C-alpha cells in the first residue's frame, strides 16, 4: 500500500512540475505568425531598436539568444538576435526588425508564417 501511495505522489509531483514549464516546450523551437516593426524606441533589453540590424522580439527567450527564422512560404532564412519582448498578438511568435523581415521576404505582406530554431 505504501508503494502505491509513493507512486501516486511521485506521479503527481512530476505532473505539477511539468505544468510549470513554458507553454512552448522550453521555447527552443516553434512555428507561428511573425510580424515586423521599425520603431526607434528602447527595447526591453535596454538597447535602442535599430530597424537596420537583424534582431527580433520573443516572449520568453533570453536576450542575446540567436534564432534561425524560416519563412514557411518561400523557405528563406535569417539568423536574428533576441533583444526585445513581444509579440503581444495571439498566434504570433516573433516580431522581427525590418532588416530581418526584408531578408526573408515579408516586408510587403507585413506578416508571415515562420518557424524558428534556437542556435545559440
Give an account of the 3D structure.
- This protein is of the alpha/beta class.
- The chain has a single domain, classed as Beta Barrel (Barwin-like endoglucanases).
- It is built from 2 helices and 6 strands; from the N terminus they run H-E-E-E-E-E-H-E.
- The protein has helices spanning 2-18, 98-103; strands at 29-37, 55-57, 66-71, 77-84, 92-97, 111-118.
- Strand 3 and strand 4 form a beta hairpin.
- The longest helix is centred in the N-terminal third of the chain and has 17 residues, at 2-18.
- The N and C termini lie far apart (48 Å).
- The model is unreliable at 9-25 (pLDDT under 50).
SSE blueprint:
Elements: H1 2-18, E1 29-37, E2 55-57, E3 66-71, E4 77-84, E5 92-97, H2 98-103, E6 111-118
Parallel strand pairs: 1-5, 2-4
Antiparallel strand pairs: 1-6, 2-5, 3-4, 3-6
Q: Any idea what the radius of gyration is? A: 18 Å
The low-pLDDT segments are 9-25
Residues in helices, as a percent range:
10-25%
Number of helices: 2
Q: SSE order in H/E notation?
A: HEEEEEHE
Number of E-type strands: 6
**Mean pLDDT, nearest integer?**
85
Amino acid at each position: 500500500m505504501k508503494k502505491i501511495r509513493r507512486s501516486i505522489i511521485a506521479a503527481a509531483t512530476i505532473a505539477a512540475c511539468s505544468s510549470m514549464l513554458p507553454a512552448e516546450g522550453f521555447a527552443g523551437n516553434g512555428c507561428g505568425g511573425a510580424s515586423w516593426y521599425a520603431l526607434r524606441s528602447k527595447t526591453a533589453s535596454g538597447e535602442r531598436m535599430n530597424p537596420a540590424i537583424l534582431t527580433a522580439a520573443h516572449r520568453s527567450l533570453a536576450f542575446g539568444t540567436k534564432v534561425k527564422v524560416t519563412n514557411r512560404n518561400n523557405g528563406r532564412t535569417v539568423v536574428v538576435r533576441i533583444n526585445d519582448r513581444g509579440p503581444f498578438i495571439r498566434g504570433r511568435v516573433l516580431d522581427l526588425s525590418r532588416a530581418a523581415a526584408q531578408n526573408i521576404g515579408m516586408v510587403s505582406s507585413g506578416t508571415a508564417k515562420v518557424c524558428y530554431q534556437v542556435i545559440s
